[in-house]
Amino acid sequence: MTVSAASPPIKSRVLIAGATGFIGQFVAEASLDSDRPTYVLVRPGVATCPSKAEVLRSLHDKGAIILQGLISDRKYMEKILKVHEIDVVISAVGGGNVLDQLALVEAIKAVGTIKRFLPSEFGHDVVRADPVEPGLQMYKEKREIRRLVEEYGIPYTYICCNSIASWPYYDNKHPAHALPPLEHFKIYGDGTVKAYFVAGTDIGKFTMKTVDDVRTINKSVHFRPSNNFYNMNELASLWEKKIGRTLPRVTVTEHDLLAIAAENIIPESVVASFTHDIFIKGCQFNFSINGLDDVEVGTLYPDEPFRTLDECFNDFALKLKDSNKDVGSNGNATPNHVIESLAISEPRVCLCDEKISLFAGI
Predict the structure, then answer these.
(1) Fold (CATH) for 14-325
(2) Is 1's pLDDT higher than 90?
(3) β-strands 249-252, 116-118: how paired?
């Protein structure tokens, strides 16, 4: 008797909201790389923003199915989840849209078929971290989402990936888009408080590993790569090695950060409040992972390496070298052509300027 080969397991169908954002793009690309059917939900009008349209086109070319709508529209989300038989919902929406997830959670509960929900976390453990205002308000909103998810008994995974692998500017809402300093370093406090730094590609890769892993159901998954555990002084020294020269170091005191936070200017004050929590209070390592409600990603996947911060800073050094090449003999920068926006039926408001970006996510 001939025995047929076992059929390969059916991949979960994944819906990602916020896939044109900084973290969402990495998650969407990792989902596609894992050969999962990947649905990308975008807000109406997103194609009018050239940078987001370029991301959207790239995801579409890789096989993503593009859907248009709002996560705040409960009935619409119920329809999307049912019609496309979605198994996993991942939200990577920005800080200004955290509470829009309330309607999404209601839709997930109503459908009753979602196997895993990953709300928009992608930063610190919002229950343990305790930043000053206005950053605290964002964490209160994320805690509200958590409470509703847990009250409804929706299977969840919280991704606590800590800081993005870049220079942590306290006054820059997208630190990963900027090169490390070239004139002087701003060192927070005495520069000895450490943080964990994770490459965007690794955030995406490990996030997608968790969605079908039974060990991560109803857990907070923490990213603590020991080889990427740096303080500000060590970051500065690493960058100095890359550029081949030393730079002056200027101290930004705890008082300075608290004063900026107290100005309540969005997003600068929010980022300053998070910077204070990380590099003054040590919010990323001042608690233990107990294994009951928390797991560490390196323990789950010990054979999967993280990109090192050294490698990420090599990338920045190459960008610096390339940017110098882009300046012509007349001193003018070479034009950078942008991919044409996706066509839409009517003009919309550009959504390029996102409200706030934490060091790894919102």
Answers:
(1) Rossmann fold (3.40.50)
(2) no
(3) unpaired
